[in-house]
Every structure is written in C-alpha cells, then in structure tokens.
C-alpha cells in the first residue's frame, strides 16, 4: 500500500536541500537516509534520500542527484510516497496510519451518527478529520484526545465527544435574556439589536 509521507516545500540554500512538510508520525523511519520514495507527479521520481537534518524546527532533505538550488526548486510541491505493508501498525498504540482511519464511521458518545471520514488533514498544530455528513456537507473534527475519545478499528468507528457548536454549527447562547428568546418566550417582542453575547464553540474546538 502506498502512503503519502511528505510534501516537498521550497529550496533551502544552494546545495540542493529542500524543506519538507512531514505527513507521517514516523519520519525517522519513512524519511531517513537511503529511503527510496515514489513521487506525485510520478515523473519526478523515484527519489532517494541522501541526507536529512532538522533546521529551525523544519526537516530538510537532500536527494541523490539533486545538488543545486535549481534542481531543488524543480521538486517543489512534489508528494513523497512510501510503500507500506497494509498489515503494518505504528509502534505506538495511540497512533494510526491514515489508511486505517479513512472511511471510519464517526459517532458521538451517545451513538448519534455524524458521518464518515473521507480525508485526514495534517496541519502544523494538529491533525483534522474531514468528515462527510449524510447530507453531503463536511465537518472538520480535530484529532485530539479531548474530542476523539475512541478509535475502534474492529468496529470501524471513531467515537467523539464534541464541544457545543463543533458539529451542529450552533453557538452557545450566553445571555440570560436571549436564552429566554431561544426557548420561545418573548420571541416576538425581542429587539434584534445584535447585543447578545455568544461564544463560537467551533473556534475553541479548532484551537
């Protein structure tokens, strides 16, 4: 099975090094010297990693046959792809490969269906599940322990405990007066002056 393990960024220096956006939890295994990786676009590869080092928090790689900045820039935005045994599991039991998580059903702790994982987005701060809902819309679920409480590969599901507003697009009503309006009391006479104090819980979930 082929898995995307990194995306090449801009050139670094003049000797062929490139910055790399890592998309694997095991960079020392997948992106170590000597690793041979397929590419997307395929015409740019395969690429053999010659050296690797961390600089200012970013992984820098140099590939065999790429010795100058021009060659490095030509690889920009190339995806690096590793061949992985589909039966292989990460060493840490709390880590998962993307292919293990794809197509998992997402449900809340009380069993309410949310949707199906269609994509894993790897951001610098955290990973996100892109979940397709039954109506075709999408919702982003931060892959953090406080929200994703269980991954059950046997049952093919991810259990979440979302904060208010994360999956229902509703902000919490913090004003007592507007809480009465929301419950239907005094709804017709309430002024629409925009003074309600609301807290967008989605932004907290994404923090």
Summarize the model shown.
Helix content is 13%, strand content 39%. It is mostly beta strands.
**Low-confidence stretches at least 5 residues in length (pLDDT < 50)?**
170-207
Mean pLDDT: 78
N-to-C order of helices and strands: EEHEEEHEHEEEEEEEHEH
Question: The biggest beta sheet, please?
Answer: 6 strands, antiparallel, barrel
| Spatial order of the strands forming the largest sheet | 1-2-5-4-3-6
Q: Return Rg in Å.
A: 23 Å
Assign an overall shape: elongated
The structure class reads mainly beta
Number of helical stretches of at least 4 residues: 5
What is the beta-strand fraction?
35-45%
Distance between the termini: 33 Å
What percentage of residues falls in helices of 4 or more residues? 10-25%
Number of distinct beta strands: 14
Labels describing this entry:
mainly beta; 207 residues; disordered C terminus; elongated
Question: Would you give an account of this structure?
Answer:
The protein is mainly beta. It is about 15% helix and about 40% strand. The protein contains five helices and 14 strands. The strands form three sheets. Strands 1-2-5-4-3-6 form a six-stranded antiparallel beta barrel. A six-stranded mixed beta sheet has the order 10-9-8-7-12-11, with no helix packed on it. The longest helix is centred in the last third of the chain and has 7 residues. The chain is elongated and about 55 Å long. The C terminus is likely disordered.
List the helices and strands and how they pair.
Blueprint lengths: L1 E11 L4 E6 L4 H4 L5 E5 L6 E9 L2 E6 L5 H5 L5 E5 L14 H4 L3 E4 L4 E10 L4 E6 L5 E5 L5 E5 L4 E4 L11 E2 L2 H7 L15 E2 L1 H6 L1
Parallel strand pairs: 7-12
Antiparallel strand pairs: 1-2, 1-6, 2-5, 3-4, 3-6, 4-5, 7-8, 8-9, 9-10, 11-12, 13-14
């Amino acid at each position: 099975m082929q898995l995307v393990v990194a995306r090449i960024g801009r050139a670094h220096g003049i000797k062929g090094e490139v910055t790399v956006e890592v998309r694997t939890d095991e960079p020392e295994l997948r992106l170590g010297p000597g690793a041979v990786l397929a590419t997307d676009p395929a015409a740019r590869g395969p690429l053999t990693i010659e050296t690797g080092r961390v600089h200012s928090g970013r992984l820098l790689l140099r590939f065999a046959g790429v010795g100058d900045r021009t060659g490095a820039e030509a690889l920009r935005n190339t995806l690096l792809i590793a061949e992985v045994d589909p039966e292989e599991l990460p060493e840490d039991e709390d880590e998962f490969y993307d292919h293990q998580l794809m197509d998992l059903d997402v449900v809340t702790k009380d069993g309410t269906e949310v949707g199906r994982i269609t994509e894993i987005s790897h951001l610098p701060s955290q990973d996100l599940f892109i979940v397709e809902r039954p109506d075709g819309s999408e919702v982003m679920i931060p892959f953090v322990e406080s929200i994703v409480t269980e991954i059950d590969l046997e049952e093919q599901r991810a259990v979440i405990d979302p904060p208010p507003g994360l999956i229902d697009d509703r902000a919490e009503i913090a004003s007592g007066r507007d809480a009465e309006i929301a419950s239907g009391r005094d709804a017709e006479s309430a002024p629409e002056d925009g003074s309600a104090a609301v807290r967008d819980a989605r932004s907290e979930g994404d923090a």
